[in-house]
Amino acid sequence: MKELTTDHTSQQFNNELETLRQHFLTMGGVVEEQVQDSLQAFLDSNGSLAQDVKNKDSTVNELDGIIDEECTRILAKRQPAAGDLRMILSISKAVSELERIGDEAKKIANLTMQLIDEGESPRGYVEINRIGTMVSRMIHDTLDAYARLDIDAAIKVAKQDRTVDMEYKTALRSLVTYMMEDPRSITRVFHVIWILRSLERIGDHTRHVCQHLIFLVKGIDVRHMSMDKIDAQVKTQPE
Amino acid sequence: MKELTTDHTSQQFNNELETLRQHFLTMGGVVEEQVQDSLQAFLDSNGSLAQDVKNKDSTVNELDGIIDEECTRILAKRQPAAGDLRMILSISKAVSELERIGDEAKKIANLTMQLIDEGESPRGYVEINRIGTMVSRMIHDTLDAYARLDIDAAIKVAKQDRTVDMEYKTALRSLVTYMMEDPRSITRVFHVIWILRSLERIGDHTRHVCQHLIFLVKGIDVRHMSMDKIDAQVKTQPE
């Protein structure tokens, strides 16, 4: 594990940064659970699990607010520099991504409840399961990478988003064909498409979290670079 | 116009904040143009205008990077407090929303090009025109509100997002009905639906920019409040 923080005159400051980091990882854990549960709720047609996902939204919003306040307070009081400043800015941005991942999980939960109300759902189970498992794994690995400041892991996860995008497009094509063959299914298939869309968005947000981690560790802004360029940049950049 | 910045010992610091604000408004202007042009390109089936929208993406990304660097530099060098700190944090977050609005405009441009390639497009013109005009106006008014730090205008714009969401749902329902009646149109109608979806997202991002402005001026985090609650909070909060 790398040590990013510079020597602080104040132990109190160290504690504040550590608390911030812990809150971020806690929020990540809740969001990860939301995504996994929303997926499981869909696969099992489990309405009460879907409701659980929705209920967790208030916890996520609360943590989002707490973390943002902590960032502002540390910036005002401690006037951090270098690695500490980057850590705060990185968490401040990454937390918005986590919050939106939670929002997408909530959307999946809502769609699941609608599908349960309307009776059995057509197609899409296999695709949703595959893509959902992929993005759940991505979130898990991203939080691990944040906890260990592991930039190689972050790059690996960010690259997986490409596969998610490809899988999403393939799934969409097959659902469109299915709708053409059975137009009466269109409304219900649409629910499945919105779920896929949410999973694809979760992949995007997770990639952004990884990019913020790369900024934290390396101090380079990689948001508008291709993954190959990021890889090359990171390798030539000193720690 | 309200004066937010506290007295600075350094004129140089004032200049830096003003430059940051100007860059933010410049980036907003480019993004506003992208949205308007992507809409016009769709309505006129104008492929070269759609290409213009895509070309502007690099300008937006560049400004995004510049603004982020400026925020980091000012935070490290000037150690701002109170209103100045809020301004930097607010701009730092709002700029990510602008960047995503630009991304959605680029998606609309891409979809427009595909529709042009595939021949005349079915339905959806009226709806896209209506919702597109609404969100273009919202962006314009948001940037005005930022320039004047006008919180009442920001609340007004944020509330309009509700109307966008309702219009979007209505449009979607009518397109689903249309697809059921004419299943051969499904693929092309999907392009129209993705454009509507992008416009709806642009409305969301614009609302978030407004919420960051309210945080800037009032120092309260309104991201997870209903619009009515925001209204009430802002009215009871001293300037």
TrEMBL record, chains A, B:
Listed Pfam families: PhoU (PF01895)
Gene3D superfamilies: Phosphate transport system protein phou homolog 2, domain 2
One of the record's GO cellular component terms: cytoplasm
InterPro entries reported in the protein's UniProt record: PhoU (IPR028366), PhoU-like_sf (IPR038078), PhoU_dom (IPR026022)
Predominant cellular place of this UniProt entry's protein: cytoplasm
Residue stretches making up the PhoU domain: 26-111, 128-211
Subcellular location: Cytoplasm
Keywords: Cytoplasm, Phosphate transport, Transport
GO biological process: intracellular phosphate ion homeostasis; negative regulation of phosphate metabolic process; phosphate ion transport
Domain of life assignment: Bacteria
Record-stated family: Belongs to the PhoU family.
Role played: Plays a role in the regulation of phosphate uptake.
Assembly and binders: Homodimer.
Protein name as it appears in the record: Phosphate-specific transport system accessory protein PhoU
Organism: Marinomonas spartinae
Gene assigned in the entry: phoU
